[in-house]
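Lab channel / #folding
Pinned by the channel admin:
"Please post every new chain as: sequence first, then the structure tokens as a reply. Keep commentary short and put observations after the output so the thread stays searchable."

First post following the new format, from NK:
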Amino acid sequence: MGFEFERASCCESGINPKAVYDFIKKAEDNNLGIDSFMLLRGGRVVAEGCHAPYTMHSPHVLYSMSKSITAIALLYALEEGKISLDDSICKFFGEYDKKGKNEIITVRHLVTMTAGKMVGMAKNRHHKDWIKIFFNAPQLFKPGKTFLYINDNFYMLSAIISKIYGETLVDFLYPRLFAPLEIEKPVWETDDFGYAAGGWGLYMSITDVAKIMQCCANGGVWNGTQIIPKYWLSEATRFQVPTLPKGQIDVTKGYGYGFWRTSIPDSYRAYGLHGQVGYVFEKENTVLVVQTGISKDELLSRAIDEMCENLWSQPDEAYEEKLRELLASLGDKDNLPVEPRSTELEEKYSQKALKTHSSAFASMLHATMSTVMNEPSGRTDRFILSLEKNGDLHLIWKEGFDVNEINLGMNNEYEYNKVTLAGMKFTACTKAAWTTPRVLTVYVRLLEGCHVRRLVFVFDNEGRVIVRNDSFPDMPTLAVHYMDFSGFPLAEPLERLLKKHVAPAVLLLGEPNFRIR
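Reply from TO:
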């Protein structure tokens, strides 16, 4: 058996269980989308829990939390003398810049998000040369002048490290970080050269993320051994550059090397989209890791700030058992009423190809996953419902080059299905039910993701079928969050305007309803 954290109660660890209880209760009551949660003090777990189908050991998308792991990889290269913060990117990829226009961009600029390059988040990366995309991107300002959060800065760091050492970023990190912490080699999305995405694309369980954050909290020490270089870790997690003057609170407090300073005194965090966060509270020897699927990350940040106001206050012993009961009661993420099945419609449409008018963006993958992948997804152009001999109802669909078949699970219990989307293997956790005699509602949640896809098959009396298509976190709210994160918070009237007039056009492209031909 591998490493397991020791467990302790909140009260014996100097943590107020009421503060944790209030945080979890607020998250549940306000649909903050928590998938899993772990709180540690002194290296011992004092509270943890998750919603099914997620577990404490199942890999989960990290989004931009990947940057903190890439930053740690850079710390090793710095410590080993293979690279300098003042090295030009042209030292490693000069063949992309014959005229030397990018020579003034350094490794320091990449890791502090001050390179000044503008590479769009929705840039088409499918089998493209990502290094060329970066070198050819517009230069908005002189490197080092202004903070500009660009994912590809950390892709470039990944590519540089891999070129120096001649191995993938995962292989590079395995003997230095993953193996000492007893973390199996994780999946990390790559480009056609085999370079890890760096700024995104890493999948790790909450337990494994907690190991890394706890190692950081220990000053890079694990089981008495210095795992992460102490000096460079202190540099990475302290304030290096100012960030945004306004926007959501935890992106305005400064940036280190792949880590953010936060509004809570003496703390920093690793952070990814949709609420993937790992906090280190330095003076309190406390680590918090949360994996969620939330549209507006700042709601989670506020809830954590509120929890921390009383987290280290006098423990309220009456809440220790209440907290245990609350965490034990976390149920399934998705629930459907178990209604009588419309057997007649299931038999009528079984094995019939329901061809659709689709788009390049129509995918079981959420747009925030598919747009940054190397392999294209989308163009879902047909569905097939299949009533099996044992009574199971399956859904088959074609998307890009992949054809997938999933058991829908008609008894309000998850069915676990292996699928391939955008060339990657996922586990699709599915539930379905006839919510009315002519409406079949299907939930598809990727175990490795933080999103749920909802398909509502509507069968009218004249033989027509419409498939309503949406997801959570929803695209309109995500657009509002992105503006806020980028330092352009919208006043409430503008937010309503965007959702009312702009969102329908976005949904038409990204999450179209399907009209069966």
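NK: The longest helix spans residues 492-510.
TO: also worth noting, The longest strand covers residues 424-436.
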